[in-house]
Amino acid sequence: MDDQERWQVDDDAAAAYQRFLVPTVTGPWAAVLVERAALLPGERVLDVACGTGAVARLAAERVGTTGHVTALDINARMLEVGQSLPPVAGAAIDWREASALAMPLPDAAFDFVTCQLGLQFFPDRPVALREMRRVLSNTGRLALSVYGPIEHNPTTNALSESLDRRVRPGASLVKRTEHALADRDELHALVVAAGFEAVRITTEHITVALESAAEYVRIQLTATPLAALFVDFPAAERDRMLSEITSDLNAALAPYMRPDGLVYPQETHIVLAAA
């Protein structure tokens, strides 16, 4: 796992991320974030921790051909997958491999910075936020999102408890870190301390639909860093643990089972601020 940003996937997981997580989770959240951002035609947008570009691609459509979008991520494979997708109508996207903690970009170069579900994973969040502030113009704006409390995100909560029980204590660290900035007061103070003004935080919800709890487990263990937990286990032991984890989630998520599959809520906080 990289020293710069803690949420990292390997080569195969990057493709799985695009195939499974973008349609069900990050794509819908990207639509919410871009809608709240109210991007304008002609604006220059930087998407930090862009992954495969869910936010960047929507932003490119919003700012149009007179705008510009830079998509920045530390994971080269994520960028490669993003660049391989069919281009969208609108602004050109400039894909950059770099850390959010030291962005090789000039001061005041952007009208808008977005960061979807990434800030919580940065080892030095104040530095990352100051970098976002640095590259914004004096009239620039920020839109970022982080997950709300783990207790308000039932699948993550259930999976984390099962991983700690079935694999080893602390095995759920990556999943729990997703919710490290769930406290709205802490989040507000962090953004203000980086030099942003007019900071507003709203709590948003979407509903995710999957075929089953087993599908959720499969996606999490192929398209996220959790896949690394099982690499060193013998096949039989790995299969046993996966069966136990799936059984745990079937029980814990029973209230969210519908005739057509698993339907569950997710919660994030969206931060809007001015430079």
Describe this structure in words.
With 275 residues, the protein is an alpha/beta fold. Helices cover 41% and strands 24% of the residues. Strands 1, 2, 3, 4, 5, 6, 7 and 8 form an 8-stranded mixed sheet that branches. The longest helix is centred in the first third of the chain and has 27 residues, at 11-37. Mean pLDDT is 93; it is low at 1-11.
The quaternary structure here is: single chain
CATH class: Alpha Beta
Can you write the helix and strand succession as a string?
Answer: HEHEHEEHEHHHEHHEE
Question: Mind summarizing the main beta sheet?
Answer: 8 strands, mixed
Overall SS class = alpha/beta
Portion of residues in helices? 40-55%
Rg over CA atoms, rounded to whole Å, is 19 Å
Indicate the proportion of strand residues.
15-25%
Number of strands: 8
Give the name of the CATH superfamily.
Vaccinia Virus protein VP39
CATH architecture: 3-Layer(aba) Sandwich
Brief write-up:
With 275 residues, the chain is α/β, with parallel strands linked by helices. It has helices at residues 11-37, 54-63, 76-84, 125-134, 154-166, 173-177, 184-193, 213-223, 235-252, and strands spanning 44-48, 68-73, 93-97, 110-116, 136-147, 197-210, 257-258, 261-274.
